[in-house]
Amino acid sequence: MQPSSINLRLWLTYSLIILLVLFFALAGIVFAFQSSPLLYRQVFLRMDLVSHLLTNRLSFVIAADWDPTIDLFFKEAELLDVEVAIIDNKGASVFLSDGYLESELPPMTTLAQDAENSQEHILTFRDEEKIIWFYKISKINDNYYLLVAAERPNVAIGSLFQDELVKPMLKTGLFALIGAFVVSWLMAEWITRPLKRLSQSANNIAEGKYEPIPIEGPREVQQLARSMNDMSGKVENSLKSQRDFVANVSHEFKTPLTSIQGFSQAIFDETVHKPADIKHAAEVILKETDRLNILVNDLLTLAKLDAGTMAMNKEKIEINHLIKSLIEDFRFEIEKSGVRIKGVYTKPLYLFADSTRLSQVFLNLIDNAIKFSKSGSQILITISREGNYACVGVKDQGAGISEEELERIFERFYQVDKARKGGSDHGVGLGLAIARQIVVAHGGEISATSQLGEGSTFMVKLPIEDATQNQ
Questions:
Q1: Which helix (H) or strand (E) holds 448?
Q2: Which residues contact 363 (CB under 8 A, 6 or more apart)?
Q3: Backbone phi, then psi, for 427, in 5-degree steps?
């Protein structure tokens, strides 16, 4: 079954609401008309006519021998399909028209009040048979009152629609219904138009077209459009990073594999047979194998950190001591590169962390600082405390990183321009990505600032184990 569109669903919803409103409005009109005096105006006119005529006539004969005359008057009243009765001032019936029963008379307790009320509107009551009667009382003289009554007729609902007032109302309602359907369709289009654009943009993303979506429409749709644009940007960057990764890793694998294959083939073919040449070939094969091993281990480490399956052997460590020991490990590289490392330490700060993994983070940062620093420049390593965090900063005086590249240096597989100093020692862009994952796993954060021509600063913030013990 073909699913319906949101546009059609909205239109059907609006239409259903409109129909329900019109239905209840029509039901209200029918109910109002059924209880409205307008439907019974002919009955009321007859009752008023009989009441005025008989009241005037009876006032002249009420004291005489008037039975025959009254009987004649009442027969004339019967021609107008109403019942009449003469009531004395005590509420007793004196004379009834033919067929009019005592049980069909209203209660006669307040004749004067009923007569006064009858001048403004027709009164009603329900007899013993539950039949509703209209009645009107008028005063003949001080001793007698005239009662004019008529049974309320049953009006068929169909007859209501023949009324000259209802017909134009129905016509107006029909035009309103058609107009409401048109407006509801336009409203559905107006609401779904931005959603259609979002759907088209999603299809474009699936096809590899990362065009930004205009931010317009209702607030919720604008928010969704912004989210879609953010997602599109992230997907585009992710795909670019993956393409860069494939290219870089392919290159990193290809170079050592080519060397391993070449020297292995040379040994196998006995192209090299001198002991010195064989030893050199073995050294190259071993070096390139180590290089491949490091690359594979980095990829496995990042995968484990990503999946949250990397085991962290946390213990209490002192951060000043850890950094000092790492700087000592770089003594040979420092002398070789001609840079100076200056450490600025603070009072002991204890962390609950995996010393091996944290060492991997700071080794990466210090190693990068040495690679990209000019000979004779200084690398400053500072340790300080901010609140409940230990802060370790590594600042070099290298070429710096552009703002565009700085935003991406912690992305996996991303490499800063290889034309910079240290380009030949570039990895595949996993070092900083791994460092960030390790720091995050410790509940900390890592950030970088840089200025071209002046160097870069990497800052690592890690939570202190027990702040109250280290005041």
A1: strand 445-451
A2: 326, 329
A3: -90, -145
Say how many residues make up the chain.
471
User: Percentage of the chain surpassing pLDDT 90?
Assistant: 10
Maximum CA extent, the chain: 164
Q: End-to-end distance of the chain based on CA atoms, in angstroms?
A: 70
Q: Which residue has the higher pLDDT, 405 or 391?
A: 391
Q: Helices 67-78 and 41-61: crossing angle, nearest 10°?
A: 170
Is 412 in contact with 433 (CB distance < 8 Å)? yes
* Span 196-207, pLDDT tens digits: 777 777 777 777
Cβ-based neighbours of 16, under 8 Å, separated by 6 or more: none
Question: Residue 137: CB partners within 8 Å, gap ≥ 6?
Answer: 87, 111, 114, 115, 118, 123, 145, 146, 147, 148
Q: Please, how many CA atoms are within 13 Å of residue 196, restricted to the half-sphere of its CB?
A: 9
Using one digit for the tens of pLDDT, what is the confidence trace for 417-469? 554 444 445 555 678 888 898 999 889 999 999 888 888 999 999 998 754 44
Q: Provide the sign of the torsion angle of the four alpha carbons 329, 335, 337, 341, taken in this order.
A: positive
Helix ranges (H only) for 1-156 are 6-34, 41-61, 67-78, 111-118
DSSP 465: S
The reported pLDDT for the residue numbered 200 is 75
pTM equals 0.47
Cα separation, 294 vs 441, in Å, equals 22
pLDDT tops 60 at residue 224: yes
Give the bridge partners for 350, in sequence order.
318
User: What is the Cα–Cα distance from 396 to 382, expressed in whole angstroms?
Assistant: 12
Please tell me the distance from the alpha carbon of residue 284 to that of residue 211, in angstroms, as a whole number. Answer: 48
| Lookup: tokens for 180 | 């409401």
Cα dihedral 274, 276, 278, 280, rounded to 10, equals -150
Which tens digits make up the pLDDT trace of 110-145? 777 887 777 777 888 888 788 888 888 888 888 888
Query: Is the model's pLDDT at 296 over the cut of 60?
Result: yes
CB 390 within 8 A of CB 462: yes
